[in-house]
Design goal:
The protein is α/β, with parallel strands linked by helices and 283 residues long. The chain is built from seven helices and nine strands. Strand 3 and strand 4 form a beta hairpin. The structure holds hypoxanthine.
Amino acid sequence: MDVYSPAEAAAKIIKSRGLDREIEVAFVLGTGLGSLAEALENPIIIPFSDLPGFPKANVSGHIGQIAIGMQEGTCIAYLQGRSHYYETGDATTMRVPLETLVALGAHTLVLTNAAGSCNKDIYPGCLATITDHINFSGRNPLLGLGGEPNFMSMVDAYEPRLIKRMKRAALNAGINLPEAIYMWFSGPTFETPAEVRMAKTLGADLVGMSTVPEVILARTLGLRVAALSIVTNFAAGFSNGNPTHTGSKDMALQGSVALKRLIRAFLKTKEEAWGIRQVTISS
Ligand code: HPA
């Protein structure tokens, strides 16, 4: 009997539902952004619950399914919803979905999130492209894997060529796209005003509860990574910010219109030929 890893088994199921070509670019859709997948032509849609090792999407604003299809002549996968560290206490919660995307050919990953801002120039309603992060959670998805640790460089974790391409796409679409440093807090509480003052002092522009563990896992898997934020609010205490989940979802929904345009423009801008560097994470 063949023994498959959860990602291999999930990839087999996805192929058996009609995927007959390689995925090129994958998107993880953050809070309130699930509708971006509506841009796909004749998508194959599979609930996470049908795929081994995929997380349960428990948080409102996250649909919990994968949609795969063509957009702008490119084979795209949208993960409509993610699981967060704060739901499971497990920073590897998105490992199997990312491994599955790699098994299906994906070479580029665009992560999206809703974030709070502590930079007055990146205000609610803005999109931003993340250029670097500060991992303030104290967690790392590679912790405790055993074996020889992977002392992976995090220089250029957000691929500079993808950032450039994203900014070119924003220009073409007439969208303002500032660069931002994102600080990862574990959640699930929003930050305190004192924490937000600290984040700003340490060089963060945005704060949020996702994305960073996925970037670390994705880089380890050899994926090229870009990450986009929708700024849904000023962070706690900054410019009177006092975030709520409902407010974040509403603002994300509004911002998703511009994000849809940005993604279309991104897919239309020419890709340089990437080599695929694939490394497996030992467990
Ligand atoms: N903090 C953390 N996560 C968030 C915020 C915030 O202010 N807004 C949206 N997601």
